[in-house]
Amino acid sequence: MENVGALAILLAFCFSVYAVAASLAGKWRSNPFLLLSAERAVYSNFFLLTAASAILVYSLIAGDFRLAYVAGHSNRAMPTAYKFASWWGGQSGSLLLWAWLLSLYSAIIVFQNRRKFRDMMPWTVAILMSVQLFFNLLIGFIVSPFEVLVQGRGIVDVGDGQGLNPLLQYWTMVIHPPILYLGYVGFTVPFAFAMASLISKQKGEEWIHTTRRWSIVTWFFQGTGILLGAGWAYAVLGWGGYWGWDPVENASLLPWLTSTAFLHSVMMQEKKGMMKIWNMVLVAATFFLCIFGTTLTRTGIVSSVHAFAQSPIGVYFFSFLAIGIAATILLILSRVDYLKTESRMESVVSRESSFLFNNLILVASCFSVLWGTLFPVISEAVTGEKISVDAPFFNKINIPIGLFLLFLTGVGPLIAWRRSSLESLKRAFFWPILGSIVLTIVLGIAGIHHPFALMSFALCLFVTWTIMGEFYKGSRAIQAKSGQNFAVAAIQLTHRNTRRYGGYLVHMGIVLMFIGFTGKAFDKDTTVEAAVGDNFRLGGYEMKVREILDGDNDNYSWRHAKIDVSQNGKLVTTLEPERRGYKASRQPTSEVAIWRRLNEDVYINFAGSSEDNKKAVIQAYVFPLVSWIWIGFWVLLIGTIICLIPSKVRLQYARTQVVGVTSKPYVEVER
Amino acid sequence: MKPYAKFAVLVVAIIGTLAWLAAGGINETKTYYKEIKEVNAMTKAELEKRIRVGGDVAENSIVREGKEVRFVLTQKELKLPVVYVGTEPLPDTFRNGAQALADGKMRPDGVFQANRIQAKCASKYEGKPQYKVKPPIQDSKAAI
User: Fold this and answer.
1) What ipTM does the predicted assembly reach?
2) In the prediction, which pLDDT does A411 show?
3) Residue of B nearest to A304 (CA)
């Protein structure tokens, strides 16, 4: 079985080499048969990697403990879902997942464009398959998932495995890696198209239109993956945080920041023909940061709570990155003429300028996170001393950046293209700004004095007001024309220009998340050693340990506390945190109990037992507003889906403008 | 002022502010990675720095005294006594024999006072797995 799997990967490697060679040769000799065979090699590559993945998953579920990977990441007692999740529980398996997803995406791309972009596609295929080749090389020759355990000259069956890391045995962790990977891998596609259009000097912005959906969907998956990780950290790790600026978390955030910048700045290119070089840089940066993120997680160059130790694949990753980045820079430099801008910035107060600052600030944030993450490496190279920086460094830079971004979110969409008059600014922003000032005063009187928290709440109101104002004004106009009721008018409005109003909803989701982030400023916590019957207080809640139970099952043994939570003398809920000792890995974990509500979460962690084993060490937290992060996510999801629905009204953007004539930002054309 | 000059001023102002914040942030939180060998040889001035020391938790060295936790970090032959005074609970992975990183400062009495501990199980998830391999089954034909 494992031989078939290894053979499949080997063949997939050969096919990816062939696909690169055939599409380049076919392009060079203008041979359509070679080009067609290259595209078919993409399909074959996909089928072979699917077979390899299926074999690995089968071995994990069936429990073939002769395989090192199965023995290291699965065991008999685990539920089947976790056995399946062991596919991406370790290094070689997750690299196989990477390779498989890329092969799937490539196959889809080749199929979708089988009759389109005949002059650009060979390059796209060649680029996609070059990346594929690299990952096939890794899983085929360097860290094969199909290695068997050998002792002396015989293959060994260890009988049972070590099991998936118990911290990963949680539902969001089951879906977090594949979803993050869907995003990470997905950005290979816009990158390949961008580079292919650059190589073949495509006219216009075809690559942007073709990959717009890809970009949005993969951007969404990246964001979802990050948030699932945050949700997992919150619900599982027991320290109550959702973000710790850990190198691996940072690695997932970096490409998200640049892809967010890309999604915005690409509009400048579509509508005004500006920032063409910059967009190429951003799409390439995002792709390489995705690879870099995989490198960081998979090689452990920076110490991290994600326990991936040093591994031999770092050299390969860095070679790949170095070659890729060098080639991309050379390519962009050689095509600078082709990327000339079509119009210029005219005013600091304009839509263009808000995009520019949005990009500047996102990239600055990305750079600061990258800098902080790599600081130990950089400082060691420069001064010879390994110095690391901590969460306060990241917060210090990224909180102001976040607030400024929030401000731009409110301002940007309402400013006109080219330039805005003072009069129009007043009309658009007078009431929202007044509202925010009033809110700040009210909150100040109510006892909130944290400056960033006050600013954040004020900006959240400001942005919400401007977004709601847009929906309200638009719907009113439709209502006045057609006489429908307001809700129908609002839906029609959204349907007319899904990109715009879907975008507003995405912004709204981000605002809700910021409300949740701001709650962090008001956290409360306490740690107590409590026996059955003991009481303690935290932030208006009275907690009483009702009972502590012990038990045992195949996978783990457990200790369970029942804690009554009362408010104003009334019992409101009973929380049941648990402590587990996993048998296969002999590792203890905590199952925290959370009472989730809209205003604040009560969060209890069974941190351990006292020396004499009679008392439980209980940590209790109150986290205000944290639920709004997850609510914001759902709004963001809805907004993203709306963005993907085609607009009822086709938009034609005025691309070149005559100086002196104020043209409308766009012309609506009824179909 | 021409728009491009305005842009330049704004961009410089933003980047300057961020660089200033970054420099402050680095100075506040920088932590030096040191080996136990280096910690033992540090001068008085250097002892003021925040340090991060890594090593293995010596077998059976973990002692809990009220809110403090004492243990010994080892790196080959070298030993470093550590007292943990942080408020956060120790991670689940912190056990005898685990690899641990301790953040904190050296006390004059030669004990390292840590306010943060990170730990990972040695040899667990990746790297070279150490399996307890059962003795290979004897060749059955030979046994007959």
Assistant:
1) 0.74
2) 87
3) B118
